[in-house]
Request: fold
Amino acid sequence: MRKGFLLLLLALAAGGAAEAGALQKGNASTAREAALMASFIPRSAGPWQAEADEVYDPETIFSYIDGAGEVYRSYNFRLLVARRFHKDGRPDIVVDLFDMGGPADAFGVFTHDLDGQDAGVGQGSRYRAGLLSFWKDRYFGSVYAEEETAETRELVLELGRGIAAAIPGKGRLPEALAFLPRAGLRRDSERFFHNYSVLNYHFFVADQDILRLEGRADALLAAYDLPSGEARLLVVRYQTPERAAEGLAAFVSAYMPEAEKTGLVRTEDGKWTGCRRMGRTVTVVFGAGSERDAAGLLDEVEKLVREREK
Reply:
């Protein structure tokens, strides 16, 4: 299997064992969607020419991204079109374009790894070490040069800009972003997800789904610089208030049972953890330096939720 760089788990496999030319395989709607996605990707990049496309769905993605397809699946990915560009004697360039089903999950999978510099591509992008990642509307894309040179860097960025320009329209950001207080929010720290394993990748909470996310809730994790020091804020939007109540109860029972009445507890490291529910929204503050800061951040989120839901 050809190997490259997996963005989401720090190594993206480029190439794979799936059959090329799969636009004709599967049902008619899948073939139409794959053809549409393929039309967004140029057929050449300077002197580099495209090879045959490869198409993957949630069942076949493991043959392309060895051992890491679950990360994409946790964001409800639907279809991947992969196109390799080749020029004899030069490093190959690989384009992976994912249909994530909706803008929120395209944004979410993009936020899984925000290392690098903003490249000004699509609705959000990062470039580092030959890899460009970006999102636009319901699509997440990566363009990767197997060896970074000045020439491949420009071609990678050119391909990314061309793909983003070809995708019509723009997608709406996840609703949960509206509930993040702006004061103290650390820039580019927002991570959107549905799965507790993704939460643990960014900030370990527990080895089980004690928040009852169940892959269906919309969750947002962000870092804050407060007067008493750094803290993490988790905002979870459940499908119903009843689900939110169950999630909060399960979390408190497993993580901070001594705080069942107050919603605030001082942990062994001297930091403060707090939690609160407002309708179908559950908010948790981890690691605040003072009880006042923990409670204050919960108050700010509650204010934003109530204002939006009037």
